[in-house]
Amino acid sequence: MLLIECPHCGPREQTEFTCGGEGHIVRPDPDTATDAEWGHYLFMRKNPKGLHFERWFHAHGCRQWFHAARSTVTHEIFAIYGIDEPPPAIDPSKAGSQ
Amino acid sequence: MKKGSVCVAESYLRQSPLAQRALDTRVADDTSAAGLVLSERRFLAQINLCGRIDSAAVKAAVGVELPTKPNTVTEGNNIAALWLGPAEWLLVGPSDAEKAIYDALVEGLDGKSAGIVDVTEGRTVIRVAGPMARDVLSMGCPLDLHPRVFGAGRCAQSFIVRSTVILHQVDDAPVYDIYVERSQSDYLFHWFETSGAPYGVAIAEEPATNAWRRPPRRKKDDEA
Ligand SMILES: [Zn+2]
Fold it and tell me: Which residues of B touch A64 (CB under 8 A)?
């Protein structure tokens, strides 16, 4: 069980949250994107071993989205940041990245 | 939405979702020996407010200021304003005041961006008190309710044994008001009764509420 620090509510149990998957995926312009680009946007994810920047939703709390930088190896959370903020600089080797 | 088109249930059809528990027939003469003291606060007026709300206009319209600090409650004019999100609040008033509070908000926030919804019929409120209240709650709720973290004037949304709730600590005694959806309220009340049984459970009388009175209206410039 993770203890996740909601930017508004503070530390809450993981069961209150929903994970929204990989963050910072840029939506291509549907008028100009090729089928390959659109397919990549919809379906392709990095699924890394180690450092992962992902979106979380405080579904059973304040119902706000935010970002987390989490290790998929150790579950350690290195940073919590706003849904409109760019990913912070984190040494990937600290998160078990290879 | 057309102004004033809110649907309010007719009061003669109203029944508490805990009605079949006949709590008023089980009220204990003396609750001092019980570890857990339960009661229901029926039909409290509940208005959900969302958007970038002009707090001063709310204060002028209904007499309570909106809390800006997350998970806190402000009180004024017999209304409690619970913080639900950075742009969402629940205003709770005495029973049968929902129409009047709703109308006052619609008028007071006229021309401003706001979502105002009467959600009175959606939930009932279980008041949980007694010396073991915190311990029993902690068995089913993931919130940290320790007094150094959570005290009177705090609220939080979470769940208790999988039921979505809004929890408001009313008093440091401790006393909690648990807002629970109608359909889950009987399950949750039953859970409180069985979980509190080892410590002794008593049913208390429904807490009294004071009437809400609309603040005097300020004259608009064009009326002066
Ligand atoms: Zn939150």
Answer: 85-86
